[in-house]
Amino acid sequence: MHPGRSDSHADPILQRLRRSRLRLNLTFQQVALRAGLHSAGYIFHIENGHKVPSEDVASRIAGALGEDEQLVAAWARALQRGNLRSVLDAAETLLADPELAAFAAGAWRPPAPAPDSAPALVRWRVPVIPDGADPGDALRPACETLRVLSLAAAALGPPEALARPFAYVLAASSVRRVPHLGAGRIAVISRAPAAIEPGRVFAVRAERRVELARVMWNGRALLMLPAPGRTDFDLVEAPGHAALEARIVGFVARVLDPDRIH
User: Which domains does the chain have, with CATH numbers?
Assistant: First the structure.
């Protein structure tokens, strides 16, 4: 085996990532989208032990699959075979995991595949950030995280529609353009690409904050529409597709009632 590569059948981390992907019923392309990566083939090669990801990429993939980001990043650091300090630091993190400790002791065996009929309870970890805050473009929000929700995947729609999600607790100021969302409710925002459609609500980088609005785009500027019966249209520059992508943080994938979240 090439130095640094891993046999996927004898690597507990790769087995764990594969199990999570299959449990979530995700394709390699969908994992790449969730992780903010561009190549489905790269995800395939990582999962099959052909390539070793960087720590950042390993962390992104773990987050996309709901796995421990710190643990998977340490796994990647160990496989990269960096300096002794890096390897020892990685080992400390890895051996704290019971499955990997069993692997190190020679007592680990790949788990038997779960029966197809066995339902899996899959949950998403969704960070809640301050109302109107900009999460940035990384897997983890660049701003303050107020708390992390554990949400049933079934409640959030098809997996391909959800990428690097975050949430706002909607204040009255947040819903002035989209009052039907309801102040006090929780809006889950997906950062997956989405077509501009009349009924879709987008999170838009405006002058001072991220605004929620239905929008129109003419190739040069993005028009944020007001609530029905109001006239407070707002126009922000977005000349070209690159500028449009920079303006739009994501779209509202789901709006949830707080009392139904456990």
Answer: 8-104 (1.10.260), 125-260 (2.10.109.10)
